[in-house]
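User: Last request for today: this protein with indole-3-glycerol phosphate, please.
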Amino acid sequence: MSEDILQRILAVKREEITALAKRHSRASLHGLADEQAAPRGFAAALSKKAAHGVGVIAEIKRASPSKGLIRADFEPSWLAREYQSGGAACLSVLTDERFFQGATVYLEQARGACDLPVLRKDFMIDELQIYEARAIGADAILLIAAALSAGQMGELAACATELGMDVLLEIHDREELDAVLDAGLLGRCLLGINNRNLRTFGTRLETTLELLPLLPEATDVVTESGIGVAADVKRMTDAGVRRFLVGESLMRQSSPAAALLRLLA
Ligand SMILES: O=P(O)(O)OC[C@@H](O)[C@@H](O)c1c[nH]c2ccccc12
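Assistant: Here's the final one, the structure of the complex with indole-3-glycerol phosphate:
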């Protein structure tokens, strides 16, 4: 994602939030969020798998701005069951429509088809989106440091936590790490390190490996993007990283369950 595309996405998000605010008041969305059954415990499920090996957040992603359509035959409930039987700890579902061909209903379908906790993967910049996430059943949300000030990250993380959701806070460089550390957010969130370069779209697993020594000990790191084969997983576990977010390499296989089992072998 180039900086420009991130800015374009955020402009669309602002329009979507305006439209969302016309459909629902803050109080009514909060009410819908409160009506949901309790969240499934995203970070706990991930840690449980990581304690015995490797915890994978398997992603349901139909398309992306850099790759276009990733999977034509796309059925979120089937994919969720595949991922669960392949040993995923949690799911991530893209809900952005314009750039990733996602939908909120895909999250509802995926979550309804399995027992796994589900992260809403979207570009969250407003509390309304966080209420909406809980109202559709999300157990966790993503916050992207490149899209937010430290103050916004703190406010949105607090809002999610208050609703019982876990937060995956994503960084991709040292400046963003410093912002997250300065804001005192590390103890309260999972830390995602995105291996994708926002300018070139390329992925480099060294992004995670290079940032690791700068983290406080015992940080729960999730390495994100560009994990394709078992050797990538091995490289990360050798460095002490036991949590993974994997999308494209699983979505491209006819059996995502078999692909996940191979990745974990
Ligand atoms: O498909 P990959 O390379 O396995 O990556 C998954 C995930 O990390 C990626 O989809 C992602 C990471 N951060 C994001 C932020 C927005 C949209 C998408 C993403």
